[in-house]
Structures are given as structure tokens and as C-alpha cells.
Automatic annotation (TrEMBL):
Signal peptide: none annotated. Keywords: Membrane, Transmembrane, Transmembrane helix. It comes from Schaalia cardiffensis F0333. PANTHER family: MEMBRANE BOUND PREDICTED REDOX MODULATOR, THYLAKOID MEMBRANE PROTEIN TERC, CHLOROPLASTIC. It is found in: Membrane. It comes from the Bacteria. Belongs to the TerC family. It is a multi-pass membrane protein. Residues 329-366 are annotated as: Disordered. Pfam families: TerC. Its main location: membrane. The keyword Glycoprotein does not apply. GO terms for cellular component: membrane. This is Tellurium resistance protein.
């Protein structure tokens, strides 16, 4: 697949335009999005991703079009796992509801930049070391087993309290003074001649850097479907940028996806096997079959892979919603997990104090 520099420039311009539209249309005036707003914007993001896929199909052919769509659906499925962590982190930082859009958007932008680094690194490894597919495949199979283990565990009722920020965020909070609450949408707050960072900035950085652990899974996964960095980046960009509105659309439904871990395990396990099988077909490792290819099992086509991923995802969603509906009928208390939902106006000089859930309350504040 030959992509002219203009192709990369057009993709970058499209992504930048989407970010600017988000900032101007949603973030500049903090508000809590309605279900209708979140629904329409989610549809718009998905439509944009489909339109881009249609362009890929028309310009570069059906094979690359299928690779893009398979990659996009896979990234979209794996990104649902991100939402669980985002809910937990936003609750832990007690981010007011009307500021959550800003936290998610800028956190996702940071994540997208970091993912680009992973994508380019992955492309370089694949280009120079074919045996890296063994490592990618083994890692995804291990991740699939981890998903199964997580699915068998009872969900904690204190996940937000148990959350601890990553090392970078904890170090930042120790080195730079942190304000005692949120001051509107300010990232920095100056008072009595002293400048501090606000919990809002810490939450943005926490979400952006936390995505690294998801990139370690998702980047190898999509490279099993396409080895084209252009398609890998596009699929990641569209799936990540659509997460913000998806968060507000389904955050109350996340706890209903009770079989999500098993569905993701099946997808990751399949992709891991596909990577290992591909590595065997292109084997150059001397200790395996004297460095000759091993072609015992045919490689599944991109169409078969796409169909498998889509089928597993649909079965997972339908089975989860059906089972959770039956569960709700036998319980009198709601099970949906909600982040902080304060939606009253915020005065920039009237701090919203962090609560006991504050993940930095253990001495990081100054």
C-alpha cells in the first residue's frame, strides 16, 4: 500500500479538525452532554470512520478496505475496556460532570500521540524482525487469559477508592504543588503569589498516560489484521476520538456488559493465535523447523478475521444485556456505576474540594 505524503497530511488535517470542532463546540463552554447530544455525536464519529473506510476501499482496493474496517472494529471493541478505567479514574479524581468532557478529550489527545509512537515503533520492529510476531502473539494470548481471570472475579464496590495513579502522575503531584480543588476549567491556579496545578490537569495526564497499558495490547492486535501504519493509525484515531461521547452514552450501561471480558478474551486469543500462525508461516528462527516456514494451519483471511471479531462482539453484547436484564429483575438496587455527577455551575474562584476519593490525598498535595 503506497500512501503519498498528501494522504498522511489529509488524515492529520481531518483528525485535527475533529479535535478543534470538539474544543470549540463542546469544551469551550463546559456542560454535561445530554443523551441526545452524546448519541448524535457518537453516530457522527462512527459515520466519519465509515466514510474514511469507504475512501480507503475506493482508492486502495477492497483488501485494504477490509483491513481498515477489521482494525477499526477491533480497536472499538478493545476501547470499551478503556471506558471502565476512565469511569474509575474520573470518579477517583472526583471530576465534576460538566468538566468530564474536557478531561476525556485532552486525555485522549495525549493518548493518541503516545499511540502514534507505539505504532511507528511496531512498524519498525515488523519491518526488521519478523520473529516479533511470536512475541506479539504470545503477549495477546497471555492478555486473553488475563481477561478470562478478570471475568471470573467479583467486581469490587470500591474500585474508585482502590485506584492509584501511575508513577508519572504521582511523581508530578509530589514535585509540583496541587490546588485543593477544581477552579472551573483552569489547569493552573495562582493564589497568593503561588501557582499550582489543579486536579483537572492531573486527571487529564492520568487518562492520557494510562492508555499506554491499553496500547500494549491493541497495537499488536491490529498489526495482526494489517501491517500498514497508515491504516493502523487511522483505526486507532477514529476509535479513540469517538470514546468521549461513547463514555457519556454508555457509562450507565458499562456494568451491564458482564461478559465483556470473555468476549475480549476470545478476540484477543484469536488474534494472538493468528499472529503466532503468521510468524510460523514466515518463520526465520533457526530453532524452529531449522529456520524454515511451518505451514500446517492455513492463515485465516482478513474477511474471516473480520467476521469472527464482529460475531464475537455482537454475541457478547447481546448475551451481556440479556443476562443483566434478568439479573436486574431479581435485584431491587441499581447496579449501574456512576462517576461524580455534580452539574451545578462552577465559579472559577470557588473551588470544588476533592473528596476522600481523591487518589492524591495520601500526601501528594502541597
Amino acid at each position: 500500500m503506497e500512501v503519498h505524503a498528501l494522504g498522511w497530511a489529509a488524515l492529520a488535517a481531518l483528525i485535527l479538525t475533529m479535535i478543534i470542532v470538539d474544543i470549540v463546540g463542546h469544551i469551550r463552554t463546559p456542560h454535561e452532554p445530554t443523551l441526545k447530544e452524546a448519541s448524535w455525536w457518537s453516530i457522527a464519529y462512527i459515520a466519519m470512520a465509515i466514510l474514511f473506510g469507504g475512501i480507503v476501499w475506493a482508492v486502495w482496493g477492497g483488501e485494504y478496505g477490509q483491513e481498515y474496517f477489521a482494525g477499526y472494529v477491533t480497536e472499538k471493541a478493545l476501547s470499551i475496556d478503556n471506558l471502565f478505567v476512565f469511569v474509575m479514574m474520573i470518579a477517583a479524581f472526583t471530576v465534576p460532570r460538566i468538566l468530564q468532557q474536557e478531561v476525556l478529550l485532552f486525555g485522549i489527545v495525549i493518548a493518541l500521540v503516545l499511540r502514534l509512537v507505539f505504532i511507528l515503533l511496531g512498524a519498525a520492529l515488523i519491518e526488521n524482525f519478523s520473529w516479533v510476531f511470536y512475541i506479539f502473539g504470545a503477549w495477546l494470548i497471555w492478555t486473553a487469559l488475563s481477561q478470562v481471570r478478570e471475568g471470573t472475579q467479583e467486581p469490587s464496590e470500591h474500585e474508585a477508592e482502590d485506584y492509584k495513579p501511575g508513577l508519572f502522575v504521582r511523581t508530578l503531584a509530589k514535585v509540583i504543588p496541587v490546588s485543593d480543588g477544581f477552579y472551573g476549567a483552569k489547569l493552573l491556579y495562582r493564589h497568593a503569589g503561588r501557582t499550582t496545578i489543579t486536579p483537572l490537569l492531573l486527571a487529564i495526564i492520568a487518562i492520557g498516560t494510562a492508555d499506554v497499558m491499553f496500547a500494549v495490547d491493541s497495537i499488536p492486535a491490529i498489526y495482526s489484521l494489517t501491517e500498514e501504519p497508515y491504516l493502523v493509525f487511522a483505526a486507532n484515531a477514529f476509535s479513540l476520538l469517538g470514546l468521549r461521547q461513547l463514555y457519556f452514552l454508555i457509562d450507565g450501561l458499562l456494568d451491564r456488559l458482564i461478559f465483556l471480558h470473555y468476549g475480549l478474551a476470545a478476540i484477543l486469543g484469536f488474534i494472538g493465535f493468528k499472529l503466532v500462525n503468521h510468524a510460523l508461516h514466515t518463520n526465520e528462527v533457526a530453532v524452529i523447523n531449522d529456520g524454515h516456514p511451518v505451514e500446517l494451519i492455513p492463515e485465516p483471511s482478513i474477511g474471516v478475521s473480520f467476521a469472527f471479531i464482529l460475531t464475537v462482539l455482537l454475541i457478547t453484547i447481546i448475551a451481556s444485556l440479556t443476562a443483566s436484564a434478568r439479573r436486574d429483575n431479581t435485584q431491587s438496587t441499581p447496579t449501574a456505576r456512576k462517576a461524580n455527577t455534580r452539574s451545578t455551575p462552577i465559579a472559577e474562584d470557588d473551588p470544588i474540594p476533592t473528596t476522600s476519593l481523591d487518589p492524591l490525598a495520601t500526601g501528594a498535595h502541597h
